[in-house]
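Structure tokens please, single chain.
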Amino acid sequence: MPRLSLVVPVYKVQGYLSECLDSILGQSYTDFEVIAVDDCSPDDSGSILDRYAEHDARIHVIHLTENVGLGRARNAGLEKTQGDYVLFLDSDDTLSEGALQAVAERLEATGDPDILVFDYARTYWDNRILANQRAHLLKQQGPDVFRLADRPELLELLQIVWNKAYRREFITRTGLTFPPGYYEDAPWTYCSLISAERIAVLDRVCVHYRQRRQGGNILKTVSRKHFDVFDQYRRVFDFIAEREQLDVWREPLFRKMVDHYLTVLERPGRLPQDARAEFFHRAAADYRAYLPAGFRRPEGGRGRKYALLERDAYAAWVGASAAIKVRRAVKKRARTAVTRSRRSAVAAFYQSQLRLPIDENLAVFSAYWSRSVSCNPAAIAAELGRRAPHIRRVWAIRPDAVDQVPEGVEFVRVGSREYWAALARAKYLVNNVNFADAVVKREGQVHVQTHHGTPLKTMGLDQQKYPASTHMDFAKLLERCDRWDYSLSSNRFSTAIWERVYPCSYTSLETGYPRNDVLVNATAADVRKARAALGLGAGTRAFLYMPTHREYQPGFVPSLDLGRLADELGPDVTLMVRGHYFYGSSPHVAELRRSGRIVDVSGHHPVEELYLAADALITDYSSAMFDYAVLDRPIITYAPDWDVYSAVRGTYFDLLQEPPGVVATSQAELIRLLGSREYDGPDAAERRSAFRRRFCEFDDGRASERVVRRVFLGEKDMLPFVPFAERPHAPTPAQALELVERA
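Here you go.
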């Protein structure tokens, strides 16, 4: 039997679950089991649990067939525990390093108490860590083991279940279980503390309590479910009524109850406006029902609130609250007036447009900071034109890029009055990055974030840990992300990362990447056309070299000696080079292009045509590898500076260990691989297959259609995915040529 059992309820936490489990499995103390309860989670959480359980026998997974809520999920896990002590850990929180060792040592030192209370700290998206403000209550003073009557101030701690270790025999003897509904911790923690004969404390942070910026916390949810708090305190006082010896706790818990009710009433973002009066009257009824004999109200403002509840004086409560709101509103209007007075004429025009009705049949598209008509937004726009031609499609384009807009595409210049009018009035805003900070998200508008690649390098909040991103304003970043209604994903790996690093209230759409539809659906004629546009002859092998952006390099300086590589590859091989769009034109590449030794395709749009034309891809850390893998053609990873890149930028997996094909870390090795054809051998194909199944999970050629049907046409049910083994993909250049010869 293990010494410790950890019960971890799991629901919609795919972005945080691995971090939680890693914090447990990485503990120096190993005598524990994990009972993980998948509460019928609709995301990938259940699969993540199964993958961890396959590799560690200490993890036992329970998959519930229906969603039962946090309390009953904990009960399901509790029934399976076998340890001497039970701990609860929420699946978006983590254990601190050495936490279980400290807990085990303290339990032994105090002779196995009924309850051990330990400390925690709050962690925030911006890497702040705030200590528990009442941590001083856990300082060791007096006997090691005591009853609550000896230290009643422990009731002032935040009453949560996961900052304690409970002796399993004590739980069974006391008959403790979790009730359904919100605030399920209250009956458990109060009833356990007042019942325990032996309590001990541990003055050490053992849990990092994640403060999600949005979502994942009932305290930030507007709902009538907050009325559950009445049932929870009814359970507490029923528990006391059944145990005469506990009557001494009636008054302290009455105060806790009233304070809790007042908190629910006063905190914004909990009760619907039309439910506040009903809640107040219910709270007043409980006040009178549970009022202890001889009770004296607190002094000052808190006591006046108690008095209003006792009299059920809702009108007086509203009047007092309204006076406070008026004072706040006056200050806000004053600040707003000052801000508006400083706005420019264009900004004033934008404000006037925001007051006009939304155009239900207008969609604004942008890609790569309005540099081009491309990527996922372009694929969605094309599909929208086929399926809903009545919706006008307008592109936001920078003034210096308007000459590259394809003929027939409607656009507005970024910064113009037409641009701001379109942003103000469009029903739909689609982008693969974020719109400018000044863009206002109107009620009724729909923002679609398509992203522009599967992340190998760290993104969003994860970038805070790495030196390459010290210039970023992460608070501003998240304010921009707050505007999203939908976030697209091409695989579950990406979904989990997006939801963690952009913790906002959007809906994830696992559709596949619209831009990759062409890689699935292209014909032999499309492949031949793409090669002809690049001047590639029928017998020419074409390698596409696409290195990524490096924040620590000011310009595009290829890590390859491109001239030597072209010479080594020989006259029958064409080397196409595409620099990252951040770098613009490269004098180095331009010189080689003039010499005729390479083809510079840095300005070629769309990039999908390059993929179709190329026999193989050479890249380092670019997200191009995830898209090109859809074609099931060879991918060569050239990673001479992996140690530097992964340290400076941070990555989500080790590309050298999980590549989509062969790997070279030097130019000599790359030349050998290309010359030997090892890059297209069976070992490379096996790696590519595993890579495709993981990262091209949803790319079945119908991603654009899924997005249009869901977002623009309002269909709720997503199109089913074509089974992976049945998915087509564009023929290779050799196959396309063979089809011509046969004809």
